[in-house]
Design a protein that fits this description.
Structural class: alpha+beta
CATH class of the largest domain: Alpha Beta
Helix content: 25-40%
Order of helices and strands: EHEHEEEEHHHHEHEHEEHH
CATH architecture of the largest domain: Roll
Number of domains: 2
Distance between the termini: 50 Å
Number of strands: 10
Number of helices: 10
Strand content: 25-35%
């Protein structure tokens, strides 16, 4: 008798999915599609050579990217070379009982995925510990009813449009500030366009407002987005008590750090960020 994992490819794909697509899949009994602005050539080759097995899709919420929140079975992968995109059809979308953090994902080369990874489309190994959850009978109507963040999504745009907005937001921040507001790092590969009021909590206008952004280096961005650090009215760094001296040393955080060159509008957004920071233990 075959073991459960023998029914699945040892390879999987990790990516992000907008809340609207999740809601659409809930309405359609777990079946849906997502569009990536990238060609999934290797994943497509793997899918075309499954030899009767199934390939699992690991999905993070595009608005927060805290880790894998859903898994699904890939039904089809179509590459649209003309428009440089990939359309992925999936079935049996299943919400995990708890978030599977990205740091637990193993890449195909054996390395672990960085906890700071925020980009879509990663070729990885199948976390077999998640397979039993695929056998649960989902209650999509109940999941949708209890997913207020999906019902209240303000933006109905596709994932391609969403990423276009974020790409423009990043380009504008880099053009204006050119370096990390805290460390002074100028290497663009290490710079993240961080929303002060997070994408998930922001209005459509706030998501595109450059004043609602800070150009931050990794891992400053991760700490800021997690509200483990913030900045006071003078730009001085505020550090969560939950970060030990060892944590701060490893993450390169020092009490004397400051964010510089901030506008009045940015400070207005930062007051909202501090309000959340101050509520956390």
């Amino acid at each position: 008798m075959k073991k459960d994992k023998d029914n699945y490819s040892p390879n999987a794909v990790y990516t992000i999915i907008p809340q609207q697509d999740v809601g659409d899949a809930y309405v359609n009994n777990g079946a849906g599609t997502l569009t990536e602005g990238k060609l999934w050539k290797t994943a497509k080759n793997d899918f075309d050579n499954l030899d009767g097995k199934q390939m699992v899709l690991l999905l993070a919420d595009a608005s927060s990217i805290k880790g894998v929140e859903w898994i699904a079975i890939i039904k089809d992968i179509k590459i649209d070379k003309v428009n440089s995109r990939t359309i992925v059809s999936f079935t049996k979308l299943t919400k995990l009982e708890k978030i599977f953090t990205t740091s637990r994902i193993t890449l195909r080369n054996g390395n672990k995925l960085s906890p700071f990874h925020i980009r879509p489309y990663v070729l990885c190994k199948l976390p077999t510990s998640l397979l039993p959850q695929l056998h649960r009978v989902p209650d999509y109507a109940n999941d949708l009813a209890n997913s207020s963040h999906i019902k209240e999504t303000t933006s109905k745009q596709s994932i391609v449009e969403s990423r276009t907005t974020q790409s423009t937001f990043r380009k504008n921040l880099i053009k204006k500030y050119k370096k990390c507001a805290v460390t002074g790092c100028t290497n663009q590969a290490l710079l993240i366009a961080s929303h002060i009021v997070r994408w998930a909590d922001a209005t459509d206008a706030e998501r595109q407002d450059i004043a609602n952004g800070l150009l931050l280096a990794v891992p400053i961005d991760y700490l800021f987005d997690s509200h483990l650090i913030s900045f006071d009215k003078n730009g001085k760094i505020l550090i969560s008590k939950s970060l030990t001296a060892k944590d701060r040393r490893i993450m390169g955080i020092e009490t004397g750090m400051k964010s510089t060159g901030l506008s009045v509008e940015q400070h207005n957004y930062l007051s909202k960020h501090r309000a959340i920071f101050n509520k956390l233990p």
